[in-house]
Write a sequence for this structure.
């Protein structure tokens, strides 16, 4: 755990220092990395620790984006609108979780992904309020592109760090223990006295509220949102893949997976302009197939393999009985 915290701290400092390079492309990519790390860490709370395959990420991101946009257009200051969007998303997720978390397995997966489509249809149809298919424009942050780029990078970094801190607290606390028990055997966890409904709902809400914050910041960053972009099915599929790539149910795995995914995606886009989606899909499938425990699991396996031979002589050393 201590090593994970140190590595994450170094990683966050490196991202924070990117603006010093004076390169807008690096600044943009660092913002994407911070955003996806936050989303992966948040999804890991319900999908990694509890083992519930949630595909509602885009629903919460889109809800946060629209809530933040509507608040900003109503005259609420940008940062206050972000907090308001976080609160709206958290309340929605808590109420939704009380019902949808009664489903398990593929039923829960289908139910969660349907929320994305329902909210997209609502945003598209409610044109008087959400702008419909034409979307909504947001106020552009004054100060120029470079200043705005730094503001949104640091905003995403704050969300990423907050997600990591919550993940560490959950991992070390009673909630993390309860979620691991639910992931192993939910019925047995209920029988030994764990309040499974409370634990699942708490994890689901924590997972959703950070997605809402990220969506609100992203909407302000782009200064425009539309239903198809805000409630993107592609995003809701990307985030679980990132966690699986890094290592589900771990503290640092989602960060490793999200960073690796962004780097892989950019490499594939630059080399396969016509077939980038197909090439990216093949790469992801191969990585997950050959790394079932994620990159972090592979590293731990390699470390355990190196230390295993050293433990063998100790059994035959003097003073050790068989």
């Amino acid at each position: 755990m201590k090593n994970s915290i140190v590595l994450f701290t170094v990683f966050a400092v490196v991202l924070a220092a990117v603006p010093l390079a004076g390169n807008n492309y690096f600044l943009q990519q660092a913002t994407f990395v911070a955003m996806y790390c936050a989303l992966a860490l948040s999804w890991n709370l319900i999908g990694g620790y509890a083992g519930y395959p949630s595909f509602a990420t885009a629903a919460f991101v889109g809800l946060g984006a629209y809530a933040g946009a509507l608040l900003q257009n109503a005259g609420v200051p940008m940062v206050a609108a972000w907090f308001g969007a976080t609160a709206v998303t958290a309340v929605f997720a808590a109420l939704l979780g009380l019902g949808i978390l009664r489903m398990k397995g593929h039923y829960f997966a289908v139910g969660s992904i349907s929320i994305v489509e329902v909210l997209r249809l609502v945003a598209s149809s409610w044109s008087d309020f959400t702008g419909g298919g034409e979307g909504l424009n947001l106020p552009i942050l004054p100060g120029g592109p470079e200043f705005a780029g730094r503001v949104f990078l640091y905003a995403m970094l704050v969300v990423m760090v907050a997600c990591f801190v919550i993940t560490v607290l959950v991992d070390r606390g009673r909630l993390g223990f309860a979620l691991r028990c639910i992931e192993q055997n939910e019925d047995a966890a209920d029988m030994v006295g764990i309040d499974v409904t409370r634990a699942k709902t708490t994890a689901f809400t924590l997972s959703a509220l950070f997605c809402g914050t990220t969506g609100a910041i992203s909407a302000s960053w782009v200064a425009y949102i539309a239903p198809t972009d805000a409630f993107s099915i592609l995003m809701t599929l990307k985030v679980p893949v990132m966690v699986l790539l890094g290592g589900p149910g771990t503290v640092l795995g989602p960060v490793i997976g999200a960073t690796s995914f962004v780097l892989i995606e950019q490499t594939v886009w630059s080399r396969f302009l016509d077939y980038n989606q197909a090439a990216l899909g093949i790469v992801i499938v191969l990585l997950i197939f050959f790394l079932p425990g994620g990159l972090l699991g592979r590293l731990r396996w390699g470390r355990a393999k190196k230390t295993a031979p050293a433990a063998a002589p100790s059994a035959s050393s003097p003073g050790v009985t068989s």
